[in-house]
Specification:
Shape: globular
Oligomer: single chain
Radius of gyration: 19 Å
Number of strands: 12
Strand order of the largest sheet: 1-3-2-4-11-5-12
Distance between the termini: 30 Å
Order of helices and strands: EHEHEHEHEEHEHEHEHEEHHEH
Largest sheet: 7 strands, mixed
CATH class of the largest domain: Alpha Beta
CATH superfamily of the largest domain: Bordetella uptake gene, domain 1
Helix content: 40-55%
Structural class: alpha/beta
Strand content: 15-25%
Number of domains: 2
Length: about 325
Amino acid sequence: MHPGIGVVAALATVSCCTGVAAAQGLSRPIRVIVGVPPGGPSDTAIRLIAPRMGQALGQLLVVDNRPGSNGVAGTEIASKATPDGRTFAVGNSGTHAINASLYRKLPYDPIRDFAPITQMVTSGMVLTASRKLQANSLDDLVALAKKQPGRINIGVAGATGQLAGDALWSLTQTKMSNVHYKGSAPAEIAVLSGEIDLVLLTPLASMQHINAGRLKALGITSAKRSPLLPNVATVSELGVQGYSYEIWHGIFAPAKTAERVIRAANKAAVAALTAPEIKERFNSLGFTVIGNAPEEFAAVIKSEVAKYRKVIAESGIPLL
């Protein structure tokens, strides 16, 4: 686990006041709102690059974890922050793409209310089962679920996981019961204890438990296998043709934040993401580094919003 709420992720010296600091004349820290508890993928990603970003920007970067179901609470707070360069946010494919269609009344607009800075990383999700569940493969799970419709519980830590799960149950003509958690860390604990039967976890979060026999891997949602778990087949390989869901994590600012601030933050973040030792660290954790430009990231978000709107409509997934 990473340190708790409000921990300072990076402290730059006074002599390196460049980027946002120079552009804005700021002396107060930059708050980075993360809508998941400490230890989740979004939290891990920003904490890995925050020290280098802080040095480049000449600012304190303070990680402020504001967990809530599907990241809505923290993302709403970030959407309403003053666009003065003192607030950034970390969002993901759930908060900034899927939620736009999953919620009837979302309290923020992921496109209108945010200025994209950069897409940090992407990762697949491992369909992970409790040892208590009487299923050792995806086929076993489908057969069991058809005998006991709605009785198998899956932990939901975010919108991407919920949609990936709901789409899989739709394609396999099965029914599961979603149990919502405020982040992947509490959902991980729940599946380990047997409180829930299934959960979708990153390769990093699930790897040690799977290798130690504490959890069972039934498949991975990405188009390709993870190098961390090369023996875990993709869901598509297991017979669900065309199935592919990945979660991405990115950095945002409130809409109307000055362009020079966005560009400075992008430059600092991309430099941190592509530093050899940081990139190697991300790879070892099962992440693929992206580090794109603000306009490229904006195009990804628009495409993802449209993609998931279609998936939700066609799959008949109930809205929240």
